[in-house]
Each structure stands twice: as C-alpha cells, then as structure tokens.
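[audit] Reproducing an earlier prediction to check determinism. Same input, same settings, fresh worker. If the tokens differ from the archived copy the diff job will pick it up downstream; this log only records the rerun itself.
[audit] input (220 residues):
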Amino acid sequence: MFTGSMDSPHLKSIDFLNGVCSIDGIELIPSRSVYDITLRVHGRSGRHYEIVASNPIGLYNEGAWETRVIGAAWKKDLTSKQSRPYTAKLCLEIHEDKQHLPIGDRLASLALSLHNDIRLAMDIALVAQFIVCPRNDLNEIHTFQEELIVTEEMYEQQFSSNDLIESVGDEDEEFEFIDFLPNFWHLENDDEPLNLEPTQNTWVQDIEEDIMRHYDRLSD
C-alpha cells in the first residue's frame, strides 16, 4: 500500500501503524493514495470510530496532515451511505506534545486510545457523552466538542449566518487533546480485564458510574 520514496522515520511509523492494525478491532482501510489513510476502530464500549487522515499538500511534511474522528453506534453507520447521518464528529486530536511524531505513530496512538474508549472516557468528557448518547439522537448531532454539543440545527443556522462560535475544521477550533495511553500494548489480549483506575477528579468517577448504569440498563 505504502510505496515510493519515503523518508525513513515516516516509513517506520507506517510499519508500526500496520502492526497496530493487526490487533482485533482495529482495521486499516485500503486506499489508492499514500496521502489518505483511513482506520476503523471498534471500541470496548461497543461504539465504532473512523479515523481519517489526509495530506492536502501532497508532501511528507508531518505538520501538513489533517485528522478527523467520526463516531457511530453501529459499524454499518460508517460504511452505509444511508446510515451515515447517524454518525457524529468527535473533536479529538493527539496531544500537542506528540505533534512532532510521524503520522503513523500519531494514528496508532489515536486508534489504540479509541479501542480502549471506556478508559479514555474517564479522562475526556466528550467521549463519555458520545458513548452514552442513544443512536437515534446521533442523527441530530453534528459534533461533540469540549465545551458543548453542536446539533445539526445549530450547525446549519450558524454556518448559514457565517457566525459559528467554533467553525468545524477551522484553525481556531478547540480540540480535546489525548496523550498516549500508558501500557497500551495490553490491548493485544482482549481477554484481560480492563483495569480502570479513577483519577482524583470526582467528575471522572461520576462519568464512570453513568456509563456503568447505561450498560446495566442495556443488559436488563
């Protein structure tokens, strides 16, 4: 898939990404261009994610890559044009301290974090909001952001009036940054119990309890 004159760090990062995509639940979608990379991730919560990275400049300048994350309740919502409205954008990005890393490393980190999305939800509220959001409600939501949830109606009204508080895709958009998960390679064995250690923040515990109550209701 990835051939041609690549610099060594980039090529090594793509090899690393291919290795991560061998983990059950993380899939690299074939692409005709080395400047477009798409991953699909099945989170431990049962939710599905699509990571799309593109380089519009057409160079291997790591700073030129643009990344977006789309979330869905069902996998077919990502693969079917008819069900695509039941998806929503998640404003997530690799931590700014990791932006210097090659794109393969950054995408691998993002994919592994989303694969372990229940743990990620303990640190990032918008991920928890997405996980507990009913599928039918996703049809009305455009974007999960750090400060608010942007509905389709809000997006259309603000976009048409050219008065978006935070334009999706704009350089000034506020992203929730995520860092590399500690000891993330335990994800290779999905049979191991997930060790969730709540942080000192009380709101993290509240989110964890909310998620657990949500899945208790689903299992009843």
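[audit] rerun output stored. Observation attached for the diff report: Residues 77 and 83 are 5 Å apart (CA to CA).
[audit] end
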